[in-house]
Design brief:
About 55% of the residues lie in helices and about 15% in strands. The chain is an alpha+beta fold. The longest helix has 20 residues. The relative contact order is 0.06.
């Protein structure tokens, strides 16, 4: 809850202030402080449930963590079914868990009517119980997750064991079970541009399939896996993965990983299946065309922003070929969701000495200055003036470079702008050179130093 977050942050900050810790890190000592604070704000003696909670054994607390974790009133039948599906009888047997329920009902901590289980306290009781249990190394969060989300999380952990071979495409909930991933991919390949995949598909599926096609653009086909679960409470859930290995042995290991889960699901009247199918992905040029023409502008901008993040990550990771692919793609489509996109793209082209594209992008940012009012956007204009000055230096137009530095400083008189990657001039053995600097920097200080270095160099010529 927001109250919990605020309280924890308060104590983390307080511990740093008091020099009891050098970092804001949650540990048992912090949680003990939080629990004491909760006690100080309430008269615990007037809260009978908390008095009873404090008298519980660790085993009783563990049972609360199983019986009361779900957001809505949930039947014991379904609670036990999910516990058995996920954990077999490693933690509880059905009879022992029911005995714990009966005991907690007898204390008044838990209500149990018409097979529905519910914690009997208010929000304060729930928060206190959670932290009281954590101090004893027991997880007993109350009413924080749904049955389906709990199952999905555990299913994800099983899938994640194969993360080197798998890429999760997406999950489908009960409202859109008619989505067929193979059919969806085939529609991706449809050259009829009136079919708008960013409108027709569920958002997560559309975005993930798009980047799956991007990542595998040089492969003829991929293996698609559909994992379907019919749960005892009657909801079917799907997950889709791309298996990037044609190794039959790896696929068999993947299937066997879920065999025990499947058997337990069947035992409690559920079902589980894994289907696989090989399919060719759509040409990426076709997807690019559909992306440009989509009516879903918000989702298109989300995808384009992800391309920018990929370009930046690949650039800093020295994956130059992939970074160049994304940069050329972004330059070609000429769609920029936020103001600093043009400057960042220009910086990339500056880094690979494609000065013509870099200049065009920086000048495009500068030309928009009169339409911009936010300090954040004006800071980007200041960056572009500075970067354009670096281009002028590279071309030997030193007077123009000084002018661009002055233009940048004119803006920076009014605002503050930070940067992480910049090209800066240095003088070594009487020669003027430009080197990249990657660290947190104040732009005004960098521009003033660049101007000083350039003037010093020109005065010596």
């Amino acid at each position: 809850s927001p109250y919990q977050i605020q309280l924890i942050c308060h104590y983390l900050f307080k511990r740093v202030q008091e020099k009891r810790s050098t970092t804001m890190h949650i540990n048992l000592s912090v949680l003990e402080d939080v629990r004491k604070e909760l006690e100080s704000t309430q008269d615990i003696t007037k809260r009978p449930i908390l008095q009873k909670i404090r008298n519980l054994t660790p085993e009783h607390l563990k049972a609360i963590g199983v019986l009361c974790k779900y957001k809505t009133e949930t039947s014991f039948k379904d609670i036990w079914a999910l516990e058995y599906i996920l954990n077999d009888e490693k933690n509880w047997g059905e009879k022992s868990l029911k005995n714990e329920l009966d005991y907690l009902v007898s204390t008044g901590i838990v209500k149990y009517e018409n097979d529905l289980v519910e914690f009997n306290g208010d929000d304060f009781d729930k928060i206190y119980t959670k932290y009281y249990a954590i101090e004893q190394d027991i997880f007993a969060a109350i009413a924080f997750i749904s049955l389906n989300d709990e199952y999905n999380f555990r299913l994800y952990l099983l899938i994640n064991k194969f993360k080197k071979n798998l890429e999760l495409i997406g999950g489908i909930g009960p409202d859109s079970l008619d989505v067929d991933i193979v059919e969806a991919i085939n529609k991706f390949k449809d050259k009829n541009y009136s079919y708008d995949f960013l409108v027709e598909f569920p958002r997560s599926i559309a975005v993930n399939l798009y980047f799956l096609s991007l990542k595998n653009r040089n492969r003829e086909e991929i293996t698609i896996i559909e994992i379907m679960s019919r749960l005892p409470w009657g909801v079917v859930l799907k997950k889709y993965c791309s298996f990037n290995s044609n190794d039959a042995q790896s696929l068999e290991k993947f299937r066997l990983e879920f065999e025990d889960l499947k058997n337990r699901l069947v035992e409690v009247n559920g079902d589980f299946s894994i289907k696989k199918e090989k399919i060719a992905l759509p040409p990426f040029e076709l997807l690019k065309e559909k992306l440009i023409n989509t009516e879903n502008e918000a989702l298109r901008n989300q995808i384009i922003s992800q391309h920018f993040r990929l370009m930046s990550r690949e650039y800093t990771s020295n994956k130059k070929e992939e970074a160049l692919f994304n940069a050329r793609f972004l330059y070609d489509i000429d769609i920029y969701p936020v103001e600093d996109c043009r400057n960042n793209l220009g910086y990339f082209f500056l880094s690979i000495e494609d000065l013509e594209k870099a200049r065009k992008l920086f000048e495009s940012v500068i030309s928009r200055r009169k339409t911009l009012t936010r300090n954040k956007d004006l800071g980007v204009v200041a960056l572009s003036h500075y970067n354009l000055g670096i281009i002028e230096m590279k071309c030997g137009y030193f007077d123009k470079a000084l002018k661009e530095f002055e233009n940048s400083l004119d803006i920076l008189k009014e605002i503050n702008q930070e940067a992480i990657c910049l090209f800066v001039p240095i003088i070594a053995k009487g020669e003027l050179r430009i080197e990249e600097k990657i660290e947190e920097m104040n732009l005004q200080e960098i521009v003033e130093e660049a101007k000083k270095k350039l003037k010093l160099y020109l005065n010596k010529q």
